[in-house]
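Morning!

This is the sequence you dropped in the shared folder:
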Amino acid sequence: MSMKGGNTDLLYKQNKEFDGRLEMAKSLQSQHPDICTVIRRWGRWQHYVDYRGFKGNKLKLKDGVNIENKVNNYGMELKKITIKK
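The structure's back. Tokens below.
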């Protein structure tokens, strides 16, 4: 916990020769050129991912996985609270 979080110093550093946000977006585009583009939005460089190609994907369970057809509230309970005026 001696360092502040994220890659803010390196990634978001910006000057005339280097724009970290643009470099990050270009890197992602080079890794996934089929779904990722680099655009300028809200005054800065962004990556844009087109997820429409995944719209028809269906969940495939591993063999032996059984999901019960009931609600799982993870131990939470709904309690009614009365507020005194």
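Headline: The chain has a mean pLDDT of 85.

More detail when I'm at my desk.
O.
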